[in-house]
Specification:
The protein is an alpha/beta fold. It has 14 helices and 23 strands. It has three domains: 154 residues, FAD/NAD(P)-binding domain (3-Layer(bba) Sandwich), CATH 3.50.50.60; 112 residues, 3-Layer(bba) Sandwich (FAD/NAD(P)-binding domain); 114 residues, Enolase-like, domain 1 (2-Layer Sandwich).
C-alpha cells in the first residue's frame, strides 16, 4: 500500500458542508484534501434544494413540464461534478477520488493509498431511508434525488412520506399533471411542526388534486398488468406507475473506520458532536463533523452553519453552535416556515408555552393576493418572557419571517419587538398582533 504526503486536514465527504469546510480551511492556509467517491457537491442537500425550488417556481408560474425541467437543468448545471472539482482546485483543495476509510489515528486510506492527516472532518451526509415493505424492492422506485434529475413525468405517482420532501414533490408533480397519491402513516402532514401548518398545506395539496392517505401505511406492492398495485394498511388500494420514497433519511456513518479512533458508530444514527461540532476520538488533532451525518443539521443552511463553526474551531478560534433559531422551511405554495421551539418540543421539554396566532387573510397584503390563506403563530416562554419559536404558512414566508429568527437568536425583548414598524402593505404586518398579545400576557 503506497503512502502520500500528509495533510493538515482531510475532509471526508464532498457535500455542501464538506465543500465549504475544505475551501474555507484551504483559503486560511491549511493543506486540505477532500475525499469523495461520487459527485463533489452532487449528492449534497444543496444539489437537491436547487432543482426542487426551480420546479416549484415553474409550477407556481404555470410553465410546461418541458420548460420546467429545462430551467431546472440550467439552474443546476453549474453544480455538476467537473465544476465542483474546478472550484476545489481554484480554492487550493486536493480532491482524492475513492472511498475513504480511517485505518488508525492520523491515517486514512483512499483506494489503496494511505494519507496522513492532523484534523479529520466527517461530512458524509445522509441517504434515503428505504422501508422494508413486501415487494417494494422489485418495482420501479425513486428517491427524491432521482425524482429531481430525471425528465420523466409519471401519469400516476405514489409518494411515501408526508414530511417536507414528500409535500414538495407532491405539489410539483400534481401541478404538472401527475395523478399523485401521498401516503403518510401519521394522521397529518409535517408531524414535527405546529398542527396548523400541516392542515393548511393539506388543503392546498387537495386543491391541486393530491389524494392524501393519512393514517395509512404501504403494506405490500406488486406489479400488475398496467402498472403497480399497492395495498395499504387501512384496507385501501392504489394503482401507480412509479413510487417515490420520501420516508426520511439516515446519516452515512458506516464503513468509515471511525471506530479505530474510539468513536461510537450506531447504524442509522448521527455522530454525537459537542457545541463546537467536535466528535472526539483519538488522533493527532481533532475529529469534527458537519451536515446530515450529525443528525442535527437536516437542512442545507444548517449544514453550512455547522461548516462555518468547524472552520473556526479547526483554526483555533473557538466558536459554539447555537441551533435555537435555525429555520425549517417547506418551499411549497404557500410556504411553511418554522423556527425555534415547536409546540410538540415545548411539551416534551416541559416549557410553559404562551401561544398567540393571527390569520394571514386579515393582513392588508393578503387582501391584495387572490385566494391567499395562511397563519402565523408565535411562541414565548412564560418563565423567561422571551420569544422562543414561531411557525407560519404564507406566500414567501421564508423571506418575511427572518426577523423572528433574529429575535429568537438575539433574545430581543417583546416590548422592543412590538415597537418595530413594518412597511404597509406587507405580510410582515401579520406578526404585529401576536407580538402585542404575547407582550400583554407576560
Amino acid at each position: 500500500m503506497s503512502q502520500n504526503h500528509p495533510y493538515d486536514v482531510v475532509v471526508l465527504g464532498g457535500g455542501s458542508a464538506g465543500e465549504l469546510v475544505a475551501v474555507g480551511l484551504a483559503q486560511a492556509g491549511r493543506n486540505v484534501a477532500l475525499v469523495e467517491n461520487h459527485l463533489v457537491g452532487g449528492e449534497s442537500p444543496y444539489f437537491a434544494c436547487m432543482p426542487s425550488k426551480s420546479l416549484l417556481l415553474s409550477a407556481r408560474r404555470g410553465e410546461t413540464w418541458e420548460l420546467a425541467t429545462a430551467r431546472r437543468d440550467e439552474v443546476t448545471g453549474h453544480l455538476d461534478d467537473d465544476s465542483a472539482v474546478a472550484r476545489m482546485a481554484e480554492g487550493g483543495v486536493t480532491v482524492l477520488r475513492g472511498r475513504g476509510r480511517v485505518l488508525r489515528p492520523g491515517v486514512i486510506e483512499v483506494d489503496g493509498t494511505e494519507h496522513a492527516f492532523t484534523d479529520l472532518v466527517v461530512s458524509t451526509g445522509s441517504e434515503p431511508a428505504v422501508p422494508e415493505i413486501d415487494g417494494l424492492a422489485d418495482v420501479p422506485t425513486w428517491t427524491s434525488d432521482a425524482a429531481l434529475t430525471v425528465p420523466d413525468l409519471p401519469r400516476r405517482l405514489v409518494i411515501l412520506g408526508g414530511g417536507p420532501v414528500g409535500c414538495e414533490m407532491a405539489q410539483v408533480y400534481a401541478a404538472f399533471g401527475s395523478q399523485v397519491t401521498l401516503v403518510e402513516a401519521a394522521g397529518r402532514l409535517l408531524t414535527a411542526e405546529a398542527a396548523f401548518t400541516g392542515e393548511i398545506l393539506a388543503d392546498s395539496l387537495r386543491r391541486l388534486g393530491v389524494d392524501l392517505r393519512l393514517g395509512a401505511q404501504l403494506g405490500r406492492v406488486e406489479r400488475g398488468p398496467v402498472g403497480l398495485r399497492l395495498w395499504l394498511t387501512d384496507g385501501g388500494t392504489v394503482d401507480a406507475d412509479r413510487i417515490l420514497i420520501a420516508a426520511g433519511r439516515r446519516p452515512r456513518v458506516e464503513g468509515l473506520g471511525l471506530e479505530t479512533l474510539g468513536i461510537a458508530v450506531r447504524p442509522g444514527e448521527g455522530l454525537t458532536i459537542d457545541e463546537t461540532c467536535q466528535v472526539g476520538g483519538h488522533g493527532p488533532g481533532g475529529v469534527w463533523a458537519a451536515g446530515d451525518v450529525t443528525g442535527v443539521a437536516r437542512t442545507t443552511h444548517a449544514a453550512r452553519y455547522q461548516a462555518r463553526v468547524v472552520i473556526s474551531n479547526v483554526l483555533g478560534k473557538r466558536r459554539e453552535a447555537d441551533y435555537r433559531a435555525v429555520p425549517r422551511v417547506v418551499y411549497t405554495a404557500p410556504t411553511v416556515y418554522s423556527v425555534g421551539v415547536s409546540p410538540r418540543e415545548a411539551e416534551e421539554r416541559g416549557i410553559d408555552l404562551l401561544t398567540a396566532g393571527y390569520d394571514l387573510a386579515a393582513t392588508s397584503r393578503a387582501a391584495v393576493e387572490a385566494d391567499e390563506r395562511g397563519r402565523v403563530e408565535l411562541y414565548a416562554d412564560r418563565s423567561r418572557g422571551l420569544l422562543i419559536g414561531a411557525a407560519a404558512v404564507g406566500l414567501y414566508a421564508e423571506e418575511w419571517m427572518s426577523e423572528i429568527a433574529l429575535a429568537i437568536r438575539a433574545e430581543t425583548p417583546l416590548g422592543l419587538l412590538t415597537d418595530v414598524v413594518h412597511a404597509f402593505p406587507t405580510y410582515g404586518e401579520a406578526i404585529e398582533a401576536p407580538l402585542r398579545e404575547l407582550a400583554g400576557r407576560l
